[in-house]
Design a protein that fits this description.
Elements: H1 9-38, E1 44-49, E2 52-58, E3 72-76, E4 81-85, E5 91-100, E6 106-113, E7 116-124, E8 130-137, E9 140-148, E10 154-161, E11 164-165, E12 167-174, E13 180-188, E14 191-193, H2 200-210
Antiparallel strand pairs: 1-2, 2-5, 3-4, 3-5, 5-6, 6-7, 7-8, 8-9, 9-10, 10-11, 10-12, 12-13, 13-14
């Protein structure tokens, strides 16, 4: 004669609690394993310096292009930022870059692409006044730029090519009569040239670029 074994109400409740505990333990163990795997792939760091704070974003991926031996690359390694010519030392900065003064106000705002400055960069003084705006491409200051004085008024604007004046540069200054005056000078790859020098197409090109 076969015996039938039945579970009491308390045994059912106990078995249910045991199953829940086992499930929670498995989930906790899996979550911890996932967290430990994810930590080495973090790509942000907040550094404190004597001049304030630096918030950087970097990449663990290797740049597959060829490094320019004449170009300075910026990278992150062990809570420090390195500036090396012709290659990287650590992980290339890649993404947003923010510098702040000790009071947390903005100092520098820009971005990097595989260790090279790129896009729009802005610079403020310790009074919160925007002093400079420029563009970068492939680690070189190229494109529109503008400089401002302590009062936030335009001081100079134009275009740069590889860090040199290129095209018509407008400079604003205070004249002897206390009136704001300005002058315009023309450059080609850092070399100054007369406003009427060169062919008409080149002169027209510089004038049109100065409008934008």
């Amino acid at each position: 004669m076969k015996r039938r074994y039945t579970l009491s109400l308390f045994q059912h409740v106990g078995l249910f609690i045991l199953l829940i505990a086992c499930s929670s333990a498995c989930q906790q163990a899996y979550g911890q394993r996932y967290l430990e795997e994810a930590i080495p792939f973090r790509n942000e760091a907040l550094l404190q310096t004597a001049d304030g704070f630096i918030d950087v974003t970097f990449t663990h991926k290797e740049y597959r292009g060829t490094a320019d031996p004449q170009t300075t690359y910026h990278s992150y390694y062990r809570d420090s930022i390195y500036h090396t010519q012709g290659g990287y030392h650590g992980h290339p900065l890649h993404g947003a870059y923010v510098e702040r003064y000790p009071d947390k106000s903005l100092k520098v705002l820009g971005a990097y692409a595989y260790g090279l400055r790129t896009g729009k960069w802005q610079y403020w003084d310790n009074n919160g006044v925007l002093r400079k705006v420029s563009r970068w491409r492939d680690g070189k200051e190229s494109g529109k730029f503008a400089l401002y004085n302590e009062a936030g008024q335009l001081q100079q604007r134009g275009r740069l090519r590889d860090g040199n004046f290129d095209g018509i540069i407008k400079t604003v200054y205070q004249g002897d009569s206390s009136k704001v005056q300005s002058d315009k000078r023309r450059f080609h790859k850092g070399k100054e040239m007369a406003m009427d020098e060169g062919g008409w197409l080149g002169r027209m090109y510089d004038r049109v670029r100065a409008l934008f």
